[in-house]
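Hi,

Apologies if this is the wrong queue. I'm a grad student, and the batch job for Acyl--CoA ligase from Streptomyces showdoensis produced an output file that my downstream script rejects. I'm not sure whether the problem is my script or the file. Here is the sequence I used:
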Amino acid sequence: MTAPSTGAAAPAEREPAPGAAYRRRGWWRDETFLDDLYRQARERPHKLAIAGRRIAESRTDTLDFAELAALTDRFALALIELGVRRGDFVAVQLPNRWEMVPLMFACMRVGAVICPISPICPEEELRHRFGLTGARVCVTLPEWSGTPLAEIATRLKGELPTLEHVLVVDGPVPEGALSFHERFVATAREERPEAAGTLADRSALAADEPFVVLFTSGTTGESKGVLHSQNTVHSAVRGYVEAFGLGDDWVAAVSTPLVHYSGFAQGVLAGVMLGGTVAFQDVRKNEALLDLVERYRATLLYGPPATLADVVASQRTEKRDTGTLRHVVIGSAPVLAELADEVHAALGARTYSLWGMSENGPVTMTRPTDPADWAAHSNGRAIDAMETRVDSEGAAGGVGRLRVRGASLALGYYRREEVFAAEFGADGWFDTGDLARDDGRGGIRIIGRARDAIVRDGVVAPMTELEAVIGSHPKAVEAALVGLPGAADAAPGGTPGGASDGTSAGASAAGATAGATAGQGTVICAVVVPDAGSEDGGPSLDEVRAHLLAAGQDPRFLPDRVELLPALPKTLTGKVRKVELRQRYGPVPAARH
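Support response: The file is valid. Your script probably expects a header line. Output copied below for reference.
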């Protein structure tokens, strides 16, 4: 189905006409996710809603829908007692812990906007997020991976006039902070006689109001706060569950953080909307994910390729019962045919590919009706509520900038409205910043980020696929490709240095933004993280090239140079900071005299 035109660029100008059309089609609604929760608590009160595994403590915290609804009211009353007003922001800096879930719904209940933040967020970025949103409350941990989170948040409370309360979950509470357990958990406020009246006096968030701000990776500067309503998220979540035919028997094992869109929406909110179950772990331990699959009879497993590769290896070492698993969904990177085959052989489930971003959630995905191996060739077609367009402008291979429009687009960037508006063309299409091509079946295949594009012989290199293949080398864990200025050796079967100038059709398709490279002087550099078990320290240039050729990759895009690095520099959302790699391995600027 084709979504209606979104009209002019600015978010305010895209309303109200599109919203009315979205409601007619069922993509937007008047009900909310909070309504879904209370409905599930009435209809299936004792069904398991969430299971949060605590790896270090060797225990799992569980909540059924009745318990989740009761804790939502309890947490809402605690927020009201702290002075949280309608429209305030509540920052939650937690790993995948059960406390995150009732906090999500409690914020909806009191009319607050939740701001999920990763526990690995650096102090300077945390200051930026608190300052931008004017967060009144922060819920955090005493420490995470050696970083004193509670101390940092409490210190920032002294700097920022809007931040009034820091609540600490478990462990010691520094001076100036409060115990989350004492304020939120220990007292059954919802059972007090006055509780019903207190909640009745505070209206919950409506479906079209802002309810969450999700921060982008910040690869090119300060991160942006993507503001969503429950309806912009509902349209994406609905499309996601309908694409796979999911119902109330759905049990998801989610490996991604609950502070990111995939865990927050495709995990928790989808589960509550369906009346299904969501299981997760508080730390990354991929080899243990199948314990969740077996214990809770999971039907869907979601994660990036590296996670699924670890899961497959774990199954070979210690076989678990995965007979209930029907869908293995991979986002954030291409699905390689080899991995899809391994998943099916080890787990008995089919692999699906998905593309999306914080600004619009899951937009495209392969489907059960596609050919069995289609995930290795495509990122799928758009959900009904969204529309995609590739502006190839006649470029070789049909590669061009990917644009989208529809009901799942965010309300905007919080307090950065002009930046969000600038991403829209005059016809109302949003520029994703990605390069893609048509997959031949009405869907798309992501090539890479436009600003990182490399062009040779007028053709844009399939960056994401090349990186995935290199990362699958037995001596590698992951890899990133960058284009560097310099004299490239002749790649087998290709033209030395690539295209003769930077004005080819391929370069036009790439948008030739900062970081995109084309022309005689381009060196393709593969930065590889070697496998710890590799005796000789990682793959050589010849081994990387041979591996790519064996995978059927175009010879013109074989790397000219390989560098080994213990870990790739990444943003909080896991994106590689390629600008850092270009600075690290590019030429040293000439000294000024």
